[in-house]
Amino acid sequence: LICRDRDMRRVFQAIVDMFLVVGRVIVYLFLFLLVFAAVGVRMLSSAYHSSTTYDSSLDEMSYWGAFNNIGNALAVLFTLVTTENYPGVMMPALRASNWTFVYFG
Fold first, then answer.
1. Which parts of the chain register pLDDT below 70?
2. How many Å apart are CA 20 and CA 27, to the nearest integer?
3. Based on CB atoms within 10 Å of each CB, which residue in 38, 58, 62, 89 is the most buried?
């Protein structure tokens, strides 16, 4: 059916092209997050293990150990991309060093 009708072939080709472009964007986003996850593990792993004061209003306790490994860091960075719980993720690192605003900014 797709091979016979010229208009259907164009629609199908447009859908395939769209999936290829979206797939490429997803791969670029994953690589970008992977680089930032590696930098975050290197820079921030100690900030999420320290015994800083706990602020229950930000629910920081759930992010302790967030930068232990690449997998956890990718999950946290994906959360930050969706702009969910941004202060809860950022505040433990910001308490450890004021220069972490460069990473989170």
1. 1-3, 49-64
2. 11
3. 89
Q: Residue holding tokens 């970008």?
A: 32
State the SS3 of the chain: CCCCCHHHHHHHHHHHHHHHHHHHHHHHHHHHHHHHHHHHHHHHCCCCCCCCCCCCCCCHHHHCCCCCCHHHHHHHHHHHHCCCCHHHHHHHHHHHCHHHHHHHC
Backbone torsions φ then ψ of 84, nearest 5 degrees: -100, 135
What single letter denotes the amino acid at residue 3? C
Q: What is residue 69's three-state secondary structure?
A: coil
Q: Report pLDDT for 17.
A: 96
Q: In the numeric block, which tokens belong to residue 5?
A: 């009708």
Token pair for 10:
């164009």
pLDDT of residue 49: 65
Task: Please give the structure tokens belonging to residue 63.
Answer: 């992010």
